[in-house]
């Protein structure tokens, strides 16, 4: 019988929760004045890498998103250091941040569908 949750998915959930706490409380950089939400964490099978998908509230310019992603990727070593203290894992994965724009795309699709319904 197959397990409903694998080890990597459990670790991904713990990483998601702890990285969100670290970003909110431990990163004191004044450039992180906006709200950062973590939508998903995907951990590789050997637990060496973690892809963290984040979305930013109140950003309209693409330059700001790119700048915030580079800042988060530069702070990933510090975040990993704090994760080493919080989690009792033999291997803490290297963290790579990616932008998750699914909310923006979903809003665009919803607006287009509403326009189509109004026209018919």
Automatic annotation (TrEMBL):
Transit peptide in keyword set: no
Top-rank lineage group of the source organism: Bacteria
One record GO biological process: maturation of SSU-rRNA
This protein's GO CC annotations: cytosol
Functional note: One of several proteins that assist in the late maturation steps of the functional core of the 30S ribosomal subunit. Associates with free 30S ribosomal subunits (but not with 30S subunits that are part of 70S ribosomes or polysomes). Required for efficient processing of 16S rRNA. May interact with the 5'-terminal helix region of 16S rRNA.
Family: Belongs to the RbfA family.
Stored NCBIfam families: rbfA
Protein known as: Ribosome-binding factor A
Species per Swiss-Prot/TrEMBL record: Buchnera aphidicola
């Amino acid at each position: 019988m197959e397990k409903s949750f694998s080890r990597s998915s459990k670790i991904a959930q713990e990483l998601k929760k702890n990285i969100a706490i670290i970003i909110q409380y431990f990163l004191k950089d004044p450039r992180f004045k906006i709200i950062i939400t973590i939508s998903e964490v995907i951990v590789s099978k050997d637990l060496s890498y973690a892809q963290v998908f984040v979305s930013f509230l109140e950003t309209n310019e693409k330059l700001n998103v790119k700048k915030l992603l580079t800042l988060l990727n530069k702070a990933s070593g510090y975040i990993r250091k704090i994760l080493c203290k919080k989690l009792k894992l033999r291997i803490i994965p290297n963290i790579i941040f990616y932008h998750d724009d699914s909310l923006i795309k979903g809003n665009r699709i919803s607006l287009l569908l509403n326009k189509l319904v109004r026209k018919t």
